[in-house]
């Protein structure tokens, strides 16, 4: 595959930070982090960074999730995401 990237964003169908936190807490393979160049799968909530440097009216949607897909088995990663989505 050429020209592809393992970095993507999506929005959960909720703006409730507590529900979004349940999603992240349910993940077992994706680790919370912002380093997009490594081999491990990572998840990040942009609202976390915004909370510390911007007024609330400038925060992104709390449901915005960014993930970096690492080198783990694809089926394991899909299962991990499915489990987290079911936790919502």
Automatic annotation (TrEMBL):
InterPro entries membership: Cys/Met-Metab_PyrdxlP-dep_enz, Cys_b_lyase_bac, PyrdxlP-dep_Trfase, PyrdxlP-dep_Trfase_small
GO biological process terms on file: L-cysteine catabolic process to pyruvate; transsulfuration
Keyword presence, Transit peptide: no
GO molecular function: cysteine-S-conjugate beta-lyase activity; pyridoxal phosphate binding
Lineage: superkingdom: Bacteria
Cofactor names: pyridoxal 5'-phosphate
Pfam short name (any one): Cys_Met_Meta_PP
Keyword terms of this UniProt record: Lyase, Pyridoxal phosphate
Keyword Lyase annotated: yes
PANTHER family on file: CYSTATHIONINE BETA-LYASE-RELATED
Assigned protein family: Belongs to the trans-sulfuration enzymes family.
Protein name per UniProt: Cystathionine beta-lyase
Originating organism: Symbiobacterium thermophilum
């Amino acid at each position: 595959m050429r020209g592809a990237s393992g970095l993507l964003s999506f929005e959960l169908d909720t703006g409730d930070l507590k529900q979004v936190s349940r999603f992240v807490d349910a993940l077992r393979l994706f680790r919370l982090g912002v380093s997009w160049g490594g081999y491990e799968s990572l998840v990040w909530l942009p609202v976390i960074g915004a909370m510390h440097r911007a007024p609330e009216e400038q925060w992104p949607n709390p449901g915005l999730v960014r993930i970096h897909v690492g080198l783990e088995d694809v089926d394991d990663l899909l299962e991990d995401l499915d489990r987290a989505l079911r936790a919502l």
